[in-house]
Design a protein that fits this description.
This is Allantoate amidohydrolase. By secondary structure, the chain is α/β, with parallel strands linked by helices. The protein folds into 2 domains: about 300 residues, Zn peptidases (Aminopeptidase, 3-Layer(aba) Sandwich); about 110 residues, Alpha-Beta Plaits. Helix content is about 35%, strand content about 20%. The strands form 2 sheets. Strands 1, 2, 3, 4, 5, 6, 12, 13 and 14 form a 9-stranded mixed sheet that branches. Strands 7, 8, 9, 10 and 11 form a 5-stranded antiparallel sheet that branches. A hairpin with a 5-residue loop joins strand 1 and strand 2. It is elongated, with a radius of gyration of 24 Å.
């Protein structure tokens, strides 16, 4: 009797439940999961993954960036490698599926292939990236940068809240940070990287679809805007002569919201605001706010930036306010590989699922991996689009679909290999 996709999905569910217990604070349903890089919880996760990988006949290694890599080897030792995986770490009080689900699904894919004696003309390396979220060291994409060969050694001196450097944490975890450069994959040895991840948004659920294919990973930019007005007594300064920085900020917030609503493939938010002197009876003099813009098309995002800054200048000048502006962060969008996306799209349709292509509004390890190889992503719907929260949830039946799609992708890539 063959091993089914349903059995594989049930195994993934059990493993996800097990790993959810590897958290700084217990009771994942109420308190969420907190699992950071190079911590006892990270070690417990890698120990469990190592056991499961070895039980599947995989060779296992931990690299010097604290990534865990399990290989399901082809009978051809000189074959190229398909990389599958995601990150093991979470945000503080995060959910049970963000990241780690993209490790478990490739593992049960391997179990499906092994149990059904399906041989492939390429190796499969399943990767549990050490740190994508950057919660402990603000070291976003640490693990994937190591594999891609773009890790900046200066990051080794970043510290956590306790003053421990990333270098020390990695050494304590059994790594040799000075040898990270040796852990880069050779581009000629890699076919592609595919990540399976919860959508972190509501689109698939709204359309009653279990999975979707990602076209691009969003570009992001962040700004700090400081608005200068004039403080005064709130009871004695007439309204028509006030220079209220907070009122100016309110206008900026409306401009950001309106522009993003009117522009396709653009989202944005004013997520942080600070006000001074912040007294109940004092006209605000200085208001500082953050502005974030995201789009899968860099030209859309940059054009929106120019338009927004022009609107802000006109609005604040009309209110006799001045401002300082700093672009604090910019990450270009990454387009998923066209050929690989076509194979993913075909794999979804092979499963009898209506195809939905959407872009990712969040960052992922593909942002780093695209420096190494072609990338693709498969999204799995999550309840209410909720992510980075203890109530993060998925439909167990969708795991079945995801395993089938991954198996279909492998079949398609094997055919592609044979035709070359």
């Amino acid at each position: 009797m063959s091993y089914s996709f349903e059995q594989a999905a049930e195994q993934a569910w059990q493993w996800l439940e097990t790993v959810a217990r590897f958290s700084e604070i217990q009771n994942p349903q109420r308190n969420g999961v907190t699992r950071q890089c190079a911590t006892p919880e990270h070690r417990a996760t890698l120990d469990a993954l190592t056991t499961w990988m070895r039980d599947l006949g995989m060779s296992v290694r931990q690299d010097n960036g604290a990534n865990l890599i399990g290989r399901y080897a082809s009978s051809n030792p000189d074959a190229r490698t398909l990389l599958l995986g995601s990150h093991q770490d979470t945000v503080p009080n995060g959910g049970k599926y963000d990241g780690i689900m993209g490790v478990m699904l490739p593992l049960v894919l391997v179990k499906y292939l092994r149990q059904n004696r399906i041989e492939l003309p390429f190796h499969i390396d399943v990767v549990a990236f050490s740190d994508e979220e950057g919660s402990r060291f603000s070291s976003t994409l640490l693990g994937s940068k190591v594999l891609a060969g773009t890790f900046d050694s200066n990051m080794l001196y970043a510290t956590d809240d306790a003053g421990v450097t990333l270098k020390q944490a990695l050494e304590d975890f059994g790594c040799h940070p000075e040898r990270i450069v040796e852990d880069r994959y050779a581009p000629e040895d890699v076919i592609a990287f595919i990540e399976t991840h919860i959508e972190q948004g509501p689109q698939l659920e709204l359309e009653n679809l279990p999975v979707g294919v990602v076209s691009a990973i969003t570009g992001i930019e962040r700004h700090q805007l400081t608005i200068h007005g004039l403080a005064g007594h709130a009871g004695t300064v007439p309204m028509h002569v006030r220079q209220d920085s907070l009122v100016g900020a309110a206008g900026v917030i409306r401009l950001v919201d309106a522009l993003c609503r009117e522009t396709e493939e653009l989202v944005g938010v004013v997520g942080k605001i600070e006000n001074a002197p912040n007294g109940v009876n004092v006209i605000p003099q200085t208001t500082t706010l953050s502005i974030e813009l995201r789009s899968p098309q860099d030209k859309v995002r940059r054009r929106a930036r120019e338009q927004l800054l022009e609107q802000i200048d006109a609005s604040l000048t009309a209110s006799r306010l001045t401002f300082d502006h700093v672009l604090t962060y910019e990450q270009s969008a990454v387009q998923c590989s066209e050929w690989l996306s076509r194979e993913l799209e075909g794999a979804v349709q092979d499963s009898g699922i209506t195809l939905r292509v959407l872009f990712s509004g969040a960052g992922h390890d593909g942002l780093a991996m695209q420096s190494l190889c072609d990338i693709g992503m498969l999204f799995l719907r999550c309840e209410g689009g909720v992510s980075h929260h203890p109530s993060e949830a998925i439909n167990p039946e969708d795991l079945t679909t995801a395993v089938e799609v991954l198996a279909n992708v492998c079949r398609r890539l094997a055919k592609r290999h044979d035709s070359v």
